[in-house]
Design goal:
Blueprint: H1 3-16, E1 33-38, H2 43-50, E2 58-63, H3 74-85, E3 90-96, H4 106-115, H5 120-128, H6 133-137, H7 143-155, E4 166-171, E5 178-182, H8 184-187
C-alpha cells in the first residue's frame, strides 16, 4: 500500500467516526498569535505542547530553519495576512538547537539536484538570471543569530505595525525548553 492510500484509508475512518469534532474551531487564533518555527519533525508535537498551545490557539507557519529570508517572500506574506486578516497581534519566531539548516551543504544539494535529473543547464540558467542558488539555499552558523535576523526582517518591514511584539526564541528539540533571544515587548512601540 502506498503512503497516499494509507493516509486516504485512515482519513475515511477518521471522518466516518467523527474524530474531527474534538478539533473544531474557527480560523481566528484564540491566543491571537502567529508562531513561525522550523519544519523539523521533532517539533511537530513537542513545540505546541511546550508552549501550552492547543488546536485553534495560534497560526503556525513553518519554514526551513524558521528563516524569513526575503521581506517580500511567501513567509512574509503569510505573516502580513495573519496580522491583518486573522487577528494575530504577536509573532513568535522559534528556531531550535541542532537545526539541519546549520549544516546545509549547498554544493551537496546542487549535486543531488543533478543526480535526481535536474539538468546542469537549468541550474546555470537560474544562476545567470540573477538568482544566486548558493545564497538562496544557504543556512546559518548560529541559530540565535539566525533568529535575530528573521525577527529583524519582520520588525523592520514597512507593512508591519510597530506596536506588534516580535519575539525570538530557541527551543531544545529534545526537552522543549525555550530560551528567549528577543523579548518583543521591549522593542514594540506603544
Amino acid at each position: 500500500m502506498t503512503l497516499l492510500h494509507e493516509i486516504v484509508d485512515f482519513n475515511k475512518k477518521f471522518v466516518n467516526d467523527e474524530e474531527y469534532v474534538k478539533y473544531e474551531t474557527d480560523k481566528f487564533p484564540d491566543k491571537r498569535m502567529l508562531v513561525l518555527s522550523c519544519m523539523d519533525t521533532r517539533l511537530v508535537e513537542l513545540l505546541p505542547k511546550s508552549m501550552n498551545i492547543r488546536n485553534g490557539d495560534v497560526k503556525f507557519l513553518k519554514t526551513a530553519g524558521a528563516i524569513v529570508s526575503h521581506p517580500f517572500g511567501s513567509a512574509m506574506r503569510s505573516i502580513l495576512v495573519a496580522i491583518y486578516e486573522l487577528h494575530a497581534d504577536e509573532i513568535f519566531v522559534i528556531g531550535h538547537h541542532d537545526c539541519g539548516m546549520s549544516s546545509v551543504n549547498v554544493d551537496s544539494i546542487i549535486s543531488k539536484m543533478t543526480e535526481r535529473g535536474i539538468p546542469e543547464q537549468t541550474i546555470e540558467t537560474i544562476e545567470n538570471s540573477g538568482i544566486h542558488l548558493r545564497n538562496f539555499l544557504r543556512g546559518f552558523d548560529d541559530v540565535s543569530e539566525s533568529i535575530k535576523n528573521s525577527v529583524s526582517v519582520i520588525r523592520n518591514h514597512p507593512l508591519v505595525p510597530k506596536e506588534i511584539p516580535i519575539h525570538g526564541l530557541v527551543v531544545a528539540p529534545d526537552t522543549g525548553k525555550l530560551d528567549v533571544i528577543i523579548d518583543g515587548y521591549e522593542l514594540a512601540q506603544k
